[in-house]
Amino acid sequence: MRTSRYTDSQIMAILKKAENGVPVADLCRENNISTALFYRWRSKYGGMDVSLLSKMKELEAENERLKKMYAEEYFKAEIVQDALTKKW
């Protein structure tokens, strides 16, 4: 997974500026981001503070780790099942 160029606090600062009335086009130009990225951040992180944002990122990382672990165990079980069903 790609890492962001911006920290959680930077993202939240950009979103706070937009809430305070700074035009989105100016914010995007200042921070060298696209308007699509800004609106994606707003839909994903809008209404959060930095602590909630960091907690959400921790949970996403844990979820990714658990998905990988499940996939590995599934493939192991599938290999064992194939070995048991073959006739020697």
Description:
- Keywords: Coiled coil.
- This protein is mainly α.
- The protein has one domain.
- The chain has four helices and no strands.
- The radius of gyration is 21 Å and the shape is elongated.
- The model has no long low-confidence stretch (mean pLDDT 90).
Number of helices: 4
The count of domains is 1
Shape: elongated
Q: Which series of helices and strands comes N to C?
A: HHHH
Number of strands: 0
For the termini, the CA-CA separation is 43 Å
Strand content: under 5%
Q: Helices and strands: which structural class?
A: mainly alpha
Please, what is the average pLDDT? 90
Which regions are unreliable across 5 or more consecutive residues at pLDDT < 50? none
Q: Rg to the nearest angstrom?
A: 21 Å
Helix content: over 70%
Largest sheet: none
In short:
The protein has 88 residues and is mostly helical. It has 4 helices and no strands. The radius of gyration is 21 Å and the shape is elongated.
Helix-strand layout with pairing:
Layout lengths: L7 H12 L4 H8 L3 H11 L4 H36 L3
Features:
88 residues, mainly alpha, 76% helix, 4 helices, transposase activity
